[in-house]
Amino acid sequence: xxxxxxxxxxxxxxxxxxxxxxxxxxGWAIGLPKLQEKELIEKTQNVDIIVTSYDDITxxxxxxxxxxxxxxxxRATPVNxxxxxxxxRKIPVVYAPGRNSxxxxxxxxxxxxxxxxxxxxxxxxxxxxxxxxxxxxxxxTKIGLKKDVIWGMTKESPYVVFKGVELKxxxxxxxxxxxxxxxxxxxxxxxxxxxxxxxxxxxxxxxEEIGIRKVNTLAELMExxxxxxxxxxxxxxxxxxxxxxxxxxxxxxxYFINTSRGAIVDxxxxxxxxxxxxxAGAAFDVYNNEPILRNHPFIKELDNVVITPHIAGxxxxxxxxxxxxxxxxxxxxxxxxxxxxxxx
Length: 344
Prior knowledge:
Blueprint: E1 2-5, H1 11-20, E2 22-25, H2 37-44, E3 49-52, H3 59-64, E4 70-73, H4 83-88, E5 93-94, H5 101-117, H6 119-127, H7 158-161, E6 171-175, H8 179-190, E7 194-198, H9 204-207, E8 212-214, H10 218-224, E9 227-230, H11 244-249, E10 255-258, H12 267-275, E11 281-284, H13 297-300, E12 305-307, H14 316-334
Parallel strand pairs: 1-2, 1-3, 3-4, 4-5, 6-7, 6-9, 7-8, 9-10, 10-11, 11-12
Helix pairs in contact: 1-14, 5-8
């Protein structure tokens, strides 16, 4: 069994593959860039299994890999695999659903805290030297009083400039209550937040309990939530689902957070709302164009938005998770057992 392996991986969990056959590490697996189609065709002609993270496994790659029996993608959705072409040759495609659910959920809560408490803005100000003092600065303590620790009591003091809001008793609207959305909800409940959930594919009995309620329309969620976080896939139906009508329903004190896909948001609408202070703030890890354009208003203009470079799922534990998932299914495939993570 010849296994062509270009995915990022956990070193300990990949060892089993060497017992199953010849493992050829290439591309991203050894720190090289994404392989081009021509390279893949040349290198996979005689392999039995392809394991990849980001390489495009096109119909031509599949067609010319004459011995190919299995394709494995270490991502939560195998968008870079021509699944239709694989099915025509009866080649199963396995993937790694849920591999980064905890990582993304935790990161989402980090963004919620960041926008609620202005943490990045305060950090940036200190790094720029604002609100700081010189080495010779002293502070007198009057007789009978204990030493105080304040950074000034004016309208320009950080205590005033960066004053935020607590999460406790606030309502978090979750768009999409799948693997990630549910985890975000559990963490948010620990902060004392109430949950509103919009997910047409989930029934009330599967969602509702004390402090958690399903809404039947996205409009109701947008109107009643203090924080709104999206965890849905990008499809033709969800493209720009967060549009001008939805944003217009938001409270002026509300925040919008997106760690799912940039395509679900009409970015210009959010930019306009932030410019006019129509909403309190936003946080984005994903964008319509990636990498984000260097002259984007999120970077050049707006200070009421927190931005990160698509890193919500970037943790060491994600590598461990998807390596175990993929290696497990490869072993099951070789033993002719049912596959746990076959993409249908």
